[in-house]
Amino acid sequence: MLEWVEQEQPRSARWRSEAGSAPPRRIQPADDTMTADAAYRLASEGTGLLWRGDFQNARQLLQALARRADRKPRKGAPAGPAEPGEAFHRHRMAQGQRARILSMLLIELAGDYAIALRRAPDLRLACAEAWGPPDGMPSVASLRELLGLVGAHEWRKKGVEIAALGPAPNNRIHAHYGVFSPVRGEYIDLVAQAPLPATTLAFDIGTGTGVLAALLARRGVQRVVATDQDPRALACARDNMARLGLAQRVEVVEADLFPPGRAPLVVCNPPWVPGRASSPIERAVYDEGSRMLRGFLAGLAAHLGPGGEGWLVLSDLAEHLGLRSRGELLEWIEAAGLQVLGRSEARPHHPKASDPDDPLHAARSREVTALWRLGARG
Fold it and tell me: What are the residue boundaries of the Methyltransferase small domain, all occurrences included (predicted)?
């Protein structure tokens, strides 16, 4: 619960934070009279600014805070570290501090998710999609997170057209809030073009939106078991299978990696970068200690049918960032009793870097995504 005093009256509301951040210890009501410099100073000190002014002015203030957070260091500041891994971790820390400052601009929502501010949009549907049905209890969330809910709602409503699933309109994947949208096409194309073993059964490990499970079914696999342990991903994948008419062929089950049994084909597209995720959506990209990747490799041989193949779809971003070497990956493959049967790769298309100082953007200029075909040794 978030507690504060306003107009000499004690107030409280539920605190909402997808990143799991603790509520600010200090709360100060703020409105259109507050300057951006004053707001930035208070936010940097950890004071939550509970907005009581015009909603659209709050959005403008958030943009002003972002501009101040993005100011370059003064000339003469120490040069950044030379090692890519250290540069990446320092940049992540700086981005985390930036996110904490921007999250200090707060919005109160009524028990039905309505916002009682001038020119406030109706975000009730977007909030219900992300947080579940309202329970009548007022809550407080950062404006930055609320705007993220709006963006996720629009992605979910519109969907992403996946050419490999066939002609429109029956080829769209709709991502729910907190589930990574399949906006990168190269890993989907690699799965669409890889030689498909003769099989009627496949496992899709960590299915997310279910896009690869749907692709395998559209390629002719009669039964696909798709696993995930995130409730939002499970609901999202089931919704997409129903939309695509594949619910009878794709079974979505809750599991940490593998379902029971073996399959002639096991596919996995794990997070690509070893690092701690700061929000649910980042778990599709960041995997601390390469837990999912190593778990998939360690358990693959025990879940492959005789002569079966495991398809590991993996970017080499971690290699360019100095977080994991190609040699380490090959050692893990060998230690798991696996052998490489083949490898195909594709270079993703990235837009021009919005932040040239971000080591991740620099690594993406050399990034290659590969599909590793793996089999059990012996």
Answer: 172-314
